[in-house]
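Dear H.,

Thanks for agreeing to be a second pair of eyes. The structure we're designing against is below in token form, covering all 798 positions.
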């Protein structure tokens, strides 16, 4: 039997765990619960070697207890499985603020002390572990990069199962267990994540084991799935392709026996699926439904109100411990109920029976190399010069930028298919976004039935398409955080659907970069296309370029944004982004036929600089500059070039400089972004005292925000999208937002003093052209021929 079909060898039959093993699991569970509760409450007296006093308790009690017992229970039983079966297991925990459980587990396994020597397995280290939790200068109450073994940011609910699925892709001997809180299960992203079996390949991917923990309540009310009638819940889960296995109860001894049997059944089912899975067709993977009381093993009640098994245990079950002697007594009784004297030596270390029950080395879930970025697979990339778009003269020929990128991505898929370390994700838009060349090398991942009329579906496809931006990003994040590479493409307007996800990922990357034991992971790469200026046919609902604004609000160390003006620049930027690590790269590029400006050699040089003067389009090569026309974005670039021809047709001796910006961060003032250029370099491109008319792809105030400290900013006049969108023609979209060639030319003329005498006549001429455009599009439904057919050198179209 190959590892591909049976990666989980059976070493012992533990369907009925021996009493000594059950006692060890229970002892480990009690130790983890004690440490988790202690993190919420204790400032000192970590082993209760003396009676608990108010000064031993933190003054500010922060944390979440309710989910902890289910997480620690699951951790203990997964450890049993790892020890007995020798499995590779990674754990993703969805309940947001369950870090106390994970910290406790990592400390018991020894990983925490290895990574943080000042939190050793002794009394002082134990005191430090408890004290630092939700404490100034310490660690947060949710799963964060500081938590060993975690790849899942616990600050926001909904993404655990998507992250677990992404982590399992292309790693066939990995079992990714995913604890899903029943509160989290009410979110939209998690509801969509149940579709994972339709995409997981039983032969080439790892196994995702969802553990739906139904403890009955979220922060202050019941949860939907916990109150759903049992037959309906099981039918719901089965309909998504899972085989539910139930574990339920409030008697620890019985739950331990049932959980052990359930996990053994899980491994048997996984082995059976691997043996019998056809080349295509959805496998029915096991899933555990775990029902235990919320805040299990905590105080049953306080002040005459129920705590254990109730929403009052969600956060801090006893809130007035320092002030209320009764609560202090209840806390001490609670902590002593775990019998810490049986679990910890006088030195503070766990007793041998607890310590020996943890896996060893990299088999510890808290020491997973995949979770720490140490299992990376290098990416092979093609030569960007291959299949480059030929550009004989700038701005004369047409091409499709994303179609050219599709050829590059096809070759990237081919180069990396043997090591299975590169995937593409999109919400059903690869063909729409002109990336369908990749289907020459692979198909769309699909495990469900295939019909004769279907195209490009494959059980092992390297392209993932699902109509959920949340799933695309969640799968990609899980894939990246475990060391592999990928790219997500999306319509520009709908990238906003994952605004919150990208914010969480940015925070994770920035924090992780400060942690020496975390290896850098491949960058999260977005391609935003079908953008605002070519969504005139879909109307205003599809017209929103603000994702870049959102991204640039994040830590500058981890975010980059690029606006390649043509196909060769797009290839160069994409090649650069795929080579980076620990970043979020956003590339904005159109998919429609457009003018091409730079050969591949000039494109690479231009993109490396990030911005530059296009001398071939400028008229200020001799003498001083009258006005600078800047641009960022493919459509604004075309309109700026057309405006230059209009200006030179009206004022032949006007000295105009054209500046194109690819890397938007170059505009930031020094010290505000790693890619910002110096003021002297900035002044060489944008001479102080010379007015700048800048056409930007998105909202104009972003450019003002980036440049307000630059020399000469008072002379900047930025044109961009002003939410004047509708269903209209491509050029009319530009006109409605003053980013068209006529408005840009007029803005430039208004800033040149020596044109003042003739400005009235020139303005009238340009306004007449705008009137002609207005009348033509409303009569014919298309732009004027001189607009549609314009190219660089064709004339002024004025």
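And this is the sequence the design step returned. I haven't edited it by hand at all.
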């Amino acid at each position: 039997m190959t590892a591909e079909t049976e990666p989980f060898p059976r070493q012992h039959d533990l369907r009925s765990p021996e009493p000594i093993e059950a006692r060890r699991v229970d002892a480990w569970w009690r130790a983890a619960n004690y440490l988790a509760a202690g993190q919420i409450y204790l400032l000192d007296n970590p082993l209760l070697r003396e009676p608990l006093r108010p000064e031993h308790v933190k003054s500010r009690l922060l944390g979440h207890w309710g989910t902890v017992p289910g997480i620690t229970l699951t951790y203990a039983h997964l450890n049993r499985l790892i020890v007995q079966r020798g499995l590779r297991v990674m754990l993703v925990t969805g309940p947001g603020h369950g870090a106390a459980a994970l910290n406790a587990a990592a400390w018991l396994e020894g990983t925490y002390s290895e990574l943080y020597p000042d939190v050793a397995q002794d009394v002082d280290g134990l005191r430090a572990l408890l004290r630092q939790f939700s404490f100034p200068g310490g660690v947060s109450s949710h799963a964060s990069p500081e938590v060993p073994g975690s790849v899942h940011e616990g600050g926001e609910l909904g993404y655990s199962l998507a992250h677990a699925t992404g982590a399992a892709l292309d790693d066939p001997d990995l079992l990714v267990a995913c604890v899903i809180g029943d509160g989290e299960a009410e979110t939209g992203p998690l509801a969509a994540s149940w579709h994972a079996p339709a995409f997981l390949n039983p032969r080439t991917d790892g196994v995702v084991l969802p553990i739906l923990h139904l403890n009955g309540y979220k922060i202050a009310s019941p949860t939907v799935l916990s109150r759903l009638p049992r037959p309906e819940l099981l039918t719901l889960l089965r309909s998504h392709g899972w085989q539910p296995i139930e574990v339920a109860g409030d008697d620890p001894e019985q739950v331990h026996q049932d959980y052990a049997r359930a996990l053994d059944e899980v491994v048997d089912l996984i082995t059976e699926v691997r043996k019998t899975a056809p080349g295509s067709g959805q496998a029915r993977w096991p899933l555990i439904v775990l029902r235990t009381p919320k805040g299990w093993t905590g105080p049953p009640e306080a002040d005459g109100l129920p705590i254990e098994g109730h929403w009052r245990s969600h956060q801090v079950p006893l809130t007035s411990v320092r002030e209320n002697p009764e609560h202090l007594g209840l806390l001490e009784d609670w902590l002593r109920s775990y019998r810490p004297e049986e679990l910890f030596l006088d030195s503070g270390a766990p007793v041998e029976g607890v310590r020996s029950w943890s896996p060893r080395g990299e088999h510890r879930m808290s020491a997973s190399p995949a979770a720490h970025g140490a299992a990376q697979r290098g990416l092979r990339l093609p030569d960007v010069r291959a299949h480059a778009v030929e550009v004989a003269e700038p701005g004369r020929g047409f091409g499709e930028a994303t179609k050219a990128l599709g050829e590059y991505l096809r070759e990237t898929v081919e180069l990396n298919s043997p090591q299975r370390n590169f995937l593409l994700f999109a919400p059903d838009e690869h063909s729409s976004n002109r990336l369908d060349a990749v289907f020459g090398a692979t198909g769309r991942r699909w495990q469900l039935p295939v019909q004769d009329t279907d195209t490009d579906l494959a059980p092992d496809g390297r392209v993932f398409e699902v109509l959920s931006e949340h799933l695309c990003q969640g799968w990609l994040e899980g894939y990246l955080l475990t060391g592999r590479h990928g790219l997500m493409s999306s319509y520009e307007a709908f990238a906003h659907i994952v605004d919150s996800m990208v914010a969480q990922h940015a925070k994770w990357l920035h924090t992780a970069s400060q942690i020496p034991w975390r290896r850098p992971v491949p960058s999260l790469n977005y391609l935003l296309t079908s953008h605002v200026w070519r969504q005139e046919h879909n109307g205003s609902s599809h017209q929103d370029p603000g994702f870049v604004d959102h991204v640039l609000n994040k830590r500058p160390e981890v975010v980059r944004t690029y606006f390649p003006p043509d196909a060769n620049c797009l290839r160069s930027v994409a090649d650069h982004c795929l080579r980076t690590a620990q970043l979020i790269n956003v590339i904005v590029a159109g998919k429609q036929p457009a003018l091409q400006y730079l050969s591949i050699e000039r494109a690479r040089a231009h993109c490396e600089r990030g911005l530059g003067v296009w001398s071939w389009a400028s008229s200020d090569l001799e003498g001083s500059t009258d006005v600078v026309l800047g641009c960022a974005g493919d459509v604004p670039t075309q309109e700026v070039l057309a405006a230059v021809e209009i200006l030179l047709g009206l004022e032949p001796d006007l000295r105009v400089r054209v500046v194109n910006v690819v890397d938007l961060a170059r505009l930031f003032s020094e010290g505000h972004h790693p890619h910002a250029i110096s003021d002297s370099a900035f002044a060489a491109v944008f001479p102080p005292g010379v007015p700048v008319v800048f056409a930007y792809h998105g909202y104009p105030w972003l450019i003002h925000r980036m440049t307000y400290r630059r020399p000469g900013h008072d002379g900047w006049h930025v044109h961009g999208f002003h939410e004047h969108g509708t269903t209209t023609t491509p050029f009319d979209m530009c006109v409605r937002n003053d980013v068209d060639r006529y408005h840009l030319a007029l803005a430039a003329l208004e800033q040149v003093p020596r044109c003042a005498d003739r400005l009235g006549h020139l303005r009238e001429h340009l306004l007449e052209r705008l009137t002609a455009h207005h009348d033509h599009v409303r009569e014919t439904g298309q732009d004027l021929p001189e607009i549609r057919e314009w190219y660089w050198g064709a004339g002024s179209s004025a």
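Two observations from my side: Residues 19-367 form a domain with the Rossmann fold fold (CATH 3.40.50.970). The chain has a mean pLDDT of 93.

Warmly,
E.
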